[in-house]
């Protein structure tokens, strides 16, 4: 445990930020998982939702912008509805 006052404050701040980051990553992973496992009729709405969550994660600095672009690209490639591909 640190003894220096600023280090004590840093530990407290880091603990709060870690909780925020973990919650954000959990939300991100859940949205991506929902999209990957969704059925044909729910795919579009889940895809839009996961794209929104990915964009928010990039905006808040949770993930890098290229990582967000990669996630969105892989989701779009992974499963396209039959109507869009025909």
What tags apply to this protein structure?
single chain; about 90 residues; mainly alpha; Methane Monooxygenase Hydroxylase, Chain G, domain 1; 4 helices; elongated
What does this structure look like?
It is built from four helices and no strands. The chain has 86 residues and is mainly α. It has one domain: Ribosomal protein S20 (Methane Monooxygenase Hydroxylase, Chain G, domain 1). It is elongated and about 55 Å long.
- What's the total number of strands? 0
DSSP helix fraction: over 70%
| Low-confidence segments | none
Main sheet overview: none
Helical run tally = 4
Radius of gyration: 18 Å
How do the strands and helices of this protein lay out in sequence?
Layout: H1 5-36, H2 40-59, H3 65-78, H4 82-85
Task: Sum this structure up briefly.
This protein has 86 residues and is mainly alpha-helical.
């Amino acid at each position: 445990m640190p003894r220096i006052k600023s280090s004590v404050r840093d530990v407290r701040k880091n603990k709060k930020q870690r909780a925020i980051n973990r919650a954000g990553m959990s939300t991100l992973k859940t949205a991506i998982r929902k999209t990957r496992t969704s059925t044909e009729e729910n795919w579009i709405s889940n895809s839009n939702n996961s794209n929104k969550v990915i964009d928010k994660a990039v905006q808040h600095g949770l993930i890098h912008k290229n990582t967000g672009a990669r996630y969105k690209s892989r989701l779009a490639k992974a499963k396209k509805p039959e109507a869009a591909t025909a």
